[in-house]
Amino acid sequence: MKILVLGVGGIGGFFGGYLHESGADVTFLVRPKRKALLITDQLKVISPLGNLNLDPKLILAEELKPVYDIILISCKTYDLDQAIIDLRPTKGRGLIIPLLNGITHMKKLDEEFGQDNIMGGVAHISSTVNEDGTIEHFSEFKKLTFGNRDLSKNNAVKEFAEVCAKTKFDVVLSEDINLDLWKKWVFISTVAGATTLFSCSLGEIVRNDFGKKIIIDLFNECRSIAKLYEFNFEDSEVDTILKTITSSSSPIKASMQRDVEKKSFTEHEQIFGDLITKGQKYNFECPILMSCYIRMNVYQGTLT
Predict the structure, then answer these.
(1) What integer pLDDT is reported at residue 198 of this predicted model?
(2) Contact 3, 57 (CB under 8 A)
(3) What CA–CA distance (Å, rounded) separates 153 from 161?
(4) Where are the domains of the chain?
(5) What is the DSSP string of the chain?
(6) Contacts (Cβ under 8 Å, ≥6 apart) of 300
(7) What gap in Å lies between CA 263 and CA 293, rounded to an integer?
(8) What is the rounded CA–CA span in Å between residue 9 and residue 135?
(9) What dotted CATH number matches 180-301?
(10) Contact present, 109 and 96 (Cβ < 8 Å)
(11) Residue 197 banded pLDDT, cuts 50, 70, 90
């Protein structure tokens, strides 16, 4: 099985790196500047799973051919249009698993590559790319979840799940990837919303008066929007999530907050904006989520 990974950031570099370590046939699609750095410095990952120092196979967009069985898209959502252009030479071959936040990217991919070729994918990981290009993995999250959005056809990605099972990260072949996509969207909107609104970790928020309540109320706003579209959380899942995100010792910061700290562009439009739009179709009010969105619009304005 030949695997192509678009992007060597905190998601693609991590999962692609451990796939490479396990012996999988992995190629990374990169830009010329990133290729030069990886040739010189190699692909380095710092992780509790064990650090990696790899010499990966690299390819540029103009060199692509339709020879890949699985294509992982791990770029930022705002780079999706360019990713689609870069991947056009692969059209007609391979199943595409986008590991992007939200769900609105699916329509663009369906229109370009055909709905039957686009799987659903969710990356559960806290990671970042340091200034020297090293990928650093935080916390215990290290799971890749994917499946066919047509739930009767999961055999199409079963072989890839078997390949992933040989790695050090966790893998789930989802029985309902559409629900999993919404659950991740709600979770990342809550964590990204809280940590960017207050510019700190979840634990620091909780240790302040009313901090825990704000996080819970934000989660309930986001979860209520999912419920409007008939995507529901089990009570046990809610309890587990709330324990995780309201721990006073939690060091968790969303990757969006890390992007803010680096003075980088963010995915707030696709994460907050699109979710707010979903709620507005049902006249649903979400004042905390809207506050997070405004906060990030103000921040983004400082970059232009």
Answers:
(1) 98
(2) no
(3) 14
(4) 2-175, 180-301
(5) -EEEEE--STTHHHHHHHHHHTT-EEEEE--HHHHHHHHHH-EEEE-TT--EEE--EEE-GGG--S--SEEEE-S-GGGHHHHHHHHGGGTTSSEEEE--SSSTHHHHHHHHH-GGGB-EEEEEEEEEE-TTS-EEEEEEEEEEEEE-SSGGGGGGGHHHHHHHTTSSSEEEE-S-HHHHHHHHHHHHHHHHHHHHHHTS-HHHHHTSTTHHHHHHHHHHHHHHHHHHTT----HHHHHHHHHHHT-TT-----HHHHHHHTT----HIIIIIHHHHHHHTTT---HHHHHHHHHHHHHHHTT-
(6) 265, 266, 268
(7) 17
(8) 7
(9) 1.10.1040.10
(10) yes
(11) very high
Q: In one letter, which amino acid is 181? A: L
Say how far apart CA 211 and CA 202 lie, in whole Å: 9
pLDDT tens, residue by residue, 162-181:
999 999 999 999 999 999 99
The amino acid sitting at 37 is L
Say which CATH topology domain 2-175 has: Rossmann fold (3.40.50)
Amino acid occupying residue 211? G
By CB atoms closer than 10 A (0-12, 13-18, 19+), residue 206 is buried
Give the pairing type, strands 70-73 and 57-59: unpaired
Crossing angle between the packed helical segments 287-301 and 211-228, to the nearest 10 degrees: 100
The model's confidence at residue 58, banded by pLDDT at 50, 70 and 90, is: very high
Joined together, the tokens standing for residue 44 give 């380095």
